[in-house]
């Protein structure tokens, strides 16, 4: 049996609220059967702080000069900004396994596999969602699911300005140390653009291995205006 197709849209820099409406629209189309295949949006955002359903007020340390958006995903507060690869998988879990625990662990595994391809040893942190390397957090995950169709997703720090996380208590974890692909690969010498492209390829490979799909690049149809 051939692997399921995953349509991948490389959307570039996209304003957060527009991306939010875009993924909601795609998810609703997937639920209604108007979207024939699962989709993975890969993009980056201008600086924004998002508040998940379990955010506590004290975890937003200071919000001056940055957009703050409350969203329906699970999890606590997080930061998105330039140099961070954000992925929004629109997946119908009925075609995989309708199990949130399985989905979260498989999403982590896709990123662990991707980081392994980048020569960065990555792992889970028991009891917490996301991906770590040597005790530092490199990727955050927060999802929403309706009728077993997913949206929201992950944020992998590639060349992110890590000082931006000083605005928040990342994911509500006191004392967490954030890191990035660039920080972990210091001395590798790859320019930012080359490192970004290498990371995108690694993430697609991670999705293919973890979810058993075939990634296919698609045009950014149905993009939110």
Name its key features:
single chain; alpha/beta; BirA Bifunctional Protein, domain 2; three-stranded mixed sheet
Oligomeric composition of the shown chains: single chain
Question: Can you tell me the number of structural domains?
Answer: 1
Integer average pLDDT: 92
Number of strands: 11
Please tell me the CATH architecture by its name. 2-Layer Sandwich
Structural class, judged by helices and strands? Answer: alpha/beta
CATH class: Alpha Beta
CATH superfamily: Bira Bifunctional Protein, Domain 2
Describe how the helices and strands are arranged.
Blueprint: E1 4-13, H1 16-32, E2 38-44, E3 48-51, E4 67-70, E5 77-80, E6 84-90, H2 100-117, E7 123-125, E8 128-133, E9 136-146, E10 149-157, H3 181-184, H4 192-211, E11 213-217
Parallel strand pairs: 1-2, 1-11, 3-4
Antiparallel strand pairs: 2-6, 3-5, 6-10, 7-8, 8-9, 9-10
Helix pairs in contact: 2-4
């Amino acid at each position: 049996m051939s692997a399921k197709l995953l349509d991948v849209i490389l959307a570039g820099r996209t304003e957060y609220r527009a991306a939010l409406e875009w993924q909601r629209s795609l998810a609703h189309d997937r639920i209604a059967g108007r979207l024939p295949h699962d989709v993975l949006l890969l993009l980056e955002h201008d600086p924004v702080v998002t508040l998940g359903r379990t955010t506590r007020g004290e975890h937003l340390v200071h919000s001056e000069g940055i957009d703050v958006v409350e969203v329906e995903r699970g999890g606590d507060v997080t930061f998105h900004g330039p140099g961070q690869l954000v992925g929004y998988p629109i997946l119908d879990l009925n075609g995989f396994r309708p199990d949130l625990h399985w989905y979260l662990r498989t999403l982590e595994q896709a990123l662990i596999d991707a980081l392994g391809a980048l020569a960065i040893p990555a792992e889970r942190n028991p009891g917490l969602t996301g991906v770590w390397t040597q005790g530092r957090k490199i990727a955050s995950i927060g999802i929403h699911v309706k009728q077993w169709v997913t949206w929201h997703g992950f944020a992998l720090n590639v060349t992110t300005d890590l000082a931006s996380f000083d605005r928040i208590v990342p994911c509500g974890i006191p004392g967490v140390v954030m890191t990035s692909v660039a920080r972990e690969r210091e001395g590798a010498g790859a320019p930012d653009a080359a490192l970004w492209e290498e990371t995108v390829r690694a993430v697609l490979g991670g999705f293919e291995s973890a979810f058993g799909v075939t990634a296919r690049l698609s045009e950014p149809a149905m993009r939110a205006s």
